Amino acid sequence: MKALQSLKIASIVASVLFAVGASAQTTSGASSQRTDSASNGTSASSESLGQHISDGAITAKAKAELIGAKDVHASRVHVKTRHGVVWLTGSVPRAADKQRAQEIVRGISGVQSVHNRLKVIEAGSSE
Asked: Start and end of every BON domain (predicted)?
């Protein structure tokens, strides 16, 4: 069980490092893309690269903290972040897990708000 948690955390860290590395590679091309977009009056993206990376970092941090929390059974919790707003979906075995997951995520730097859509499915339930 400990090895599984370590593996999950390692994969999250690797994802964040990959996102940061990808941004470093695309930053040099972003200025020429902005110049091209400005000359033809179009927008390259409705979301800035910095915002996308920040959202990815928030998601990774939330997942890591939920997995590392001893008082939350979060193996079936999914996290998505957009513009600093975090959505928690999936299921937890107890109402206390649902509440604690929200508290953990709300405490992460950069989180604007949390939409807690977790379902409480007690052990032995057929859902």
From this structure: 54-122
DSSP state of 63: H
The pTM score is 0.61
pLDDT in tens, 42-79: 444 556 767 777 999 999 999 999 999 999 998 999 99
Spatial neighbors of 77 by CB under 8 A, at least 6 apart, are 66, 88, 89, 90, 91, 92, 101, 118
Burial label for 114, CB within 10 Å (0-12, 13-18, 19+), is buried
What are the structure tokens assigned to 48, written together?
């800035």
Higher pLDDT, 114 or 33: 114
Cβ burial 45-54 (10 Å sphere, 16+ → b, else e): eeeeeeebeb
Torsion, CA 109, CA 115, CA 105, CA 72, rounded to 10: 180
